[in-house]
Amino acid sequence: MQTHQYDVVIVGAGGAGMRAALESSTRARTAVISKLYPTRSHTGAAQGGMCAALANVEEDNWEWHTFDTVKGGDYLVDQDAAEVMAKEAIDAVLDLERMGLPFNRTPEGRIDQRRFGGHTRNHGEAAVRRSCYAADRTGHMILQTLYQQCVKQDVAFFNEFYVLDVLLTHDLAGGDVPAGEEVKVSGVVAYELATGEIHVFRAKSVVFATGGAGKIFKTTSNAHTLTGDGMALALRRGIPLEDMEFFQFHPTGLAGLGILLSEAARGEGGILRNSEGERFMERYAPTIKDLAPRDMVARAMANEVREGRGCGPDKDYVLLDLTHLEPAHIDAKLPDITEFARTYLGVEPYTEPVPVYPTAHYAMGGVPTTIDAEVLRNATDVVGGLFAAGEVACVSVHGANRLGTNSLLDINVFGKRAGIAAAAYATTAEWVDLPEEPEAYVVGEIERMRDRAAGERVADVRRALQETMDANAQVFRTATSLEQARADIAELKKRYAAVSVQDKGRRFNTDLLEAVELGFLLDLAEVVVEGALAREESRGGHFREDFPTRDDERFLQHTLAYARRGADGSTTIELGTKPVTMTRYEPMERKY
Amino acid sequence: MAQTNEIAPETGSAEGTPGGTDEREPQAADASGGAGAVPSFDVTLRIRRFDPDADEPEAYWEEFTVTAYGTDRVLDAMHKVKWEVDGSLTFRRSCAHGICGSDAMRINGRNRLACKTLLKDLDPSKPITIEPIKGLPVIKDLVVDMEPFFASYREIMPFLITGGNAPSAERIQSPEQRERYDDTTKCILCAACTSSCPVFWTDGQYFGPAAIVNAHRFIFDSRDEGGAQRLEILNDKEGVWRCRTVFNCTEACPRGIEVTKAIQEVKRAMITRAF
Q1: Which of A17, A279, B74, B200 makes a 20 to 30 Å CA pair with B100?
Q2: Annotated catalytic residue A105
Q3: How far apart, in whole angstroms, are the C-alpha atoms of residue B21 and residue B123?
Q4: CB contact under 8 A, A110 and B170
Q5: What is the pLDDT along chain A (592 residues), one digit of tens a residue?
Q6: Which is nearest to A395 in space by CA: A76, A46, A119?
Q7: Annotated catalytic residue: which of A294, A402, A539, A550?
Q8: pLDDT digits (tens, 9 = 90+) for A435-467
Q9: ∠ at Cα A322 (A321, A327), nearest 5°?
Q10: Topology of domain B147-274, CATH
Q11: Which chain B residues touch A94 with a CB distance below 8 Å?
């Protein structure tokens, strides 16, 4: 075992982690620990853009952006946080430009902007051009640019290190630490993939920027590595997860594959059609049609299929029609995604419509934080020195449904805030003692898994989990379907206890790490399902067919899900709440 | 599943020579696309393996036969092996759609991303050979040590260099100026190009195509003022002049970057100092 000591340890090297590192590393001794090489992070897969009310091409202002974010999130957004994000969006874009990000340009040489779902002029009048973009690889450019700046600043990276535990001064999982008591972080424990060695990182501040958990679903745009590690580690240590029942299903995944085709395709004029050739979004969102928010479009698509208007031999998808666009326009604005259609489906988007169906895309929920990225351990108390930003976190700026482009914005705004706050905390805070044998828990878990002679295959349990989540907790949910998912997950957790790996080696044992990641997925799927069962209403990305309307009376509040360890050592999920912060917008019916 | 434990000879012809036995037209049966019913077929993967934890670590070939479908990629077949047959088979992967750059490998003698290579576009009736990319130390099976690759990247100062105070708004750049370096912004640092380069194989000190591509991305960016410094670095004996214009890198690039052209442009800039 090796021990390291840094003022600030950042876990995850996607957009949020690296944006935090750029701030923190100039102010305090900082290390970034990432299970991937930084440029492999899934920020790089983001396509369409990053919204900011620059008003470079038409009238716009950050207050409209705030309103759209709040309305898009079906009023579950914390309005103070949305305001911070929309206001700071402008500097976030300009920061990136100054770092060298190659944005597309207007004829005058300014940053170009385009339309995106749910982003409107003057509180919903019409779609507005707010998304700053670099072709359809904006996320790739952000990830590259931030990594370039990290190289410039000589940021210390520990690549291909898996963080498997977070160390706190108190055991929160027992549920008996009184509110108000000071709880602090003391570091993290990591597993080095190349050697199999355990590393303990002592730190005054720890920033979680570990991304999402899309792999709880079968059909997903997410990378294989998006297994919700940071969320699950926090949960296991007694930190609640907020609003996990809200998962975004992106409308345009390549049918059967889930690979993302950016909403920019519709921003640039693409149209969704059913088997009758009808532009069906006209019926669901008469004003902004195909540019309605993602939850509405995904549901509309699923509904078309359900009512028999799907396309293809099994009538199980709809079509994204770009054939009326000029090939030169497609090449200039949407080169990557049209190549995906060609490569993976053999479809030529110039002349043929592309088969699409919703794909699990983004966790609106996550580790609860303040607007300064401090992690909350209940509705009010922060954990001293622990921060989170990006998809792992729930600020909450996305509420019940995230607007397109607001995730790239989120990682930049709140990644920056997390880096500043973590460094500020570390410069004044005292060192906290590490617990006795800080590595014991991780070593125990790893060795138990490695040593189990024979048992269940990881892949079998994972596939069963993903299938039940797709079947029972996707775009349409009911009490019956969710109870089925709950029963399936309970059964799969039993099977997981008997899981074994074939690779018994020390070095680069990805077999072992996949088994560990499966444990995270199971824990998180359970939280999603428990939250979804309890929330007997439909709001944003969470749609209950048995409760098809929004119920502000009972449910205009955040869910906090706690994993509580009972006397017998078993863990159950307990649900609490947290009020939604309202500033200037009263909940209204959501029409587009 | 047959296993051959001897060290087999290198397969495949010269790097990046298309039109060999591995290049076939997509099978007609699958031309309808991925969303409908797709036929299944058996495919054999012949994989170069190396276990660093073995008593006497030695590379060897191992064959696996799995059932695949018309839209499956090489990565899908490899996952099938790992998840259903042999969990110890080790490779990097993440996004699985050609954007993260984790899974560059030598497939039928040519560098490609496993997630972007459809089985049907190879010839699934013959074993598909899969080896680690060349020129970098093998850690385990298909995993190589990427550090030397990233070290070269870091050396060319891959970040915007500007003088004076930053402007309060954005820097102005015309669409034409932006277009000038567009191609080289696509790089995902997968190392397919660098590890396809015969110069790099014989001389690990050579910067390699990927580093030069990333230097190009800044040298031709109208906002950047570090061009002269970068050209000085690349004027080194391990710099651009080692490129022998073999075009392997351009063939290998999964992002379609005209790598050799970019290197030529850097060479020309070095002579003319015009960029």
Answers
A1: B200
A2: no
A3: 8
A4: yes
A5: 999 999 999 999 999 999 999 999 999 999 999 999 999 999 999 998 999 999 999 999 999 999 999 999 999 999 999 999 999 999 999 999 999 999 999 999 999 999 999 999 999 999 999 999 999 999 999 999 999 999 999 999 999 999 999 999 999 999 999 999 999 999 999 999 999 999 999 999 999 999 999 999 999 999 999 999 999 999 999 999 999 999 999 999 999 999 999 999 999 999 999 999 999 999 999 999 999 999 999 999 999 999 999 999 999 999 999 999 999 999 999 998 999 999 999 999 999 999 999 999 999 999 999 999 999 999 999 999 999 999 999 999 999 999 999 999 999 999 999 999 999 999 999 999 999 999 999 999 999 999 998 899 999 999 999 999 999 999 999 999 999 999 999 999 999 999 999 999 999 999 999 999 999 999 999 999 999 999 999 999 999 999 999 999 999 999 999 999 998 888 999 999 999 999 999 999 998 9
A6: A76
A7: A294
A8: 999 999 999 999 999 999 889 999 999 999 999
A9: 160
A10: Fumarate Reductase Iron-sulfur Protein; Chain B, domain 2 (1.10.1060)
A11: 169-170
| Alpha-carbon torsion (A112, A114, A118, A121), positive or negative | positive
Answer whether A240's CB lies under 8 Å from A42's CB. no
Among A140, A152, A347, whose Cβ lies nearest the Cβ of B99?
A140
What residues of chain A lie within 8 A of the CB of B116, using their CB? Answer: 343
Give every CB contact of residue A89 below 8 A, 6+ residues apart in sequence: A50, A51, A52, A53, A62, A65, A409, A413
Tens of pLDDT, residues B211-249 = 999 999 999 999 999 999 999 999 988 889 999 999 999
Question: What is the phi/psi pair of residue A268, to 5°?
Answer: -90, 5
What is the C-alpha R_g of chain A?
23
* % helix, strand, coil for chain A, step of 5: 35, 25, 40
Cross-chain residue pair B31–A346, CB shorter than 8 Å: yes
Write out the two tokens for B222.
């109208």
> What is the rounded distance in angstroms from the CA atom of residue A505 to the CA atom of residue B261?
44
**Cis peptide leading into A396, omega within 30 of 0?**
yes
What is the rounded (10 degree) CA torsion for A381, A383, A385, A386?
-120
Burial group, residue B107, by CB count within 10 angstroms (0-12, 13-18, 19+) = buried
User: Is residue B25 a contact partner of residue B115, using CB atoms and an 8 Å limit?
Assistant: no
Beta-carbon separation of A94 and B34 below 8 A: no
Residue B174: closest C-alpha in chain A: A109
Q: What angle do CA A236, A241, A246 make, to 5 degrees?
A: 135
Structural domain boundaries in chain B: 14-144, 147-274
Which residues of B are less than 8 Å from A104 in CB distance? 175, 178
In which residue are the tokens 């002029």 written? A121
* CB atoms B97 and A45 under 8 Å: yes
Which of A198, A221, A222, A197 shows the shortest CA–CA distance to A210? A222
Tell me how many residue pairs between chain A and chain B have CB atoms under 8 A apart. Answer: 184
Q: ipTM exceeding 0.90?
A: yes
Q: CB neighbours of B274 closer than 8 A, spacing ≥ 6?
A: none
Q: Report how far Cα B2 is from the mean position of its chain's Cα atoms.
A: 29
Beta bridge partners of A250: A359
Is A131 in a helix, a strand, or coil? Answer: strand
Percent of chain B as helix, strand, coil, to the nearest 5: 30, 15, 55
> CA-CA distance, A333 to A260, in Å (whole number)?
16
Q: Do A104 and B175 touch (CB under 8 A)?
A: yes
A-chain residues near B158 (CB < 8 A) = 148, 151
Q: What is the CATH number of domain B14-144?
A: 3.10.20.30
Beta carbons of B185 and A141 less than 8 Å apart: yes
- State the angle between helix axes of B259-272 and B227-234 in degrees (0 to 180), rounded to the nearest 10: 100
